[in-house]
Specification:
Blueprint lengths: L2 H21 L11 H12 L5 H8 L3 H13 L3 E5 L7 E5 L1 H21 L5 H19 L1
Antiparallel strand pairs: 1-2
């Protein structure tokens, strides 16, 4: 295995370790949401007006499974359904105020954990880290 390949494997492992420390170790704030429901809320929050079919595609699940997931989110008042303006047969999903508050709570909790985790870097190192991430992201957008 090449040195570059080993380095790339370490990057993947490190990114996973950071994600676990922020979102799993010590847990997120107490919630009635499952990880799958939380992911659905994040998707709906970023793509307001998406349909159940859109959500199913983004979450790589069947429309039937996505419908059950959305039913539970609607029941718990995290998501609202409205008739789509483009297609009366389609139902658009939108975040409720309760969902917006829950996402703010999770984001604030994650930021606290990130602040602690990234105390290991100086401001200059953090700036360099961000520059390297942007370079990679820009490369994938080309």
């Amino acid at each position: 295995m090449s040195t570059r390949h080993k380095l790339l494997e370490e990057i993947v492992e490190n990114a996973d370790a950071i994600r676990k420390r922020v979102f799993m170790r010590g847990g997120m704030p107490k919630s009635d949401l499952t990880p799958q429901q939380f992911l659905a809320l994040r998707i709906i929050g970023h793509h307001a007006g998406c349909t159940v079919k859109d959500l199913a595609q983004k979450m790589q699940m069947t429309s039937s499974a996505a419908t059950q997931l959305v039913d539970k989110l609607v029941e718990n008042k995290y998501v609202t359904r409205t008739e789509s303006a483009e297609d009366r047969r389609a139902v658009a999903l939108a975040p409720s105020e309760k969902m917006k508050e829950k996402l703010k709570e999770f984001k604030a909790h994650a930021m606290k954990k990130m602040m602690i985790l990234f105390e290991a870097l100086t401001d200059e190192e953090l700036t360099e880290y961000i520059a390297l991430q942007r370079k990679i992201i820009n490369r994938t957008n080309s």
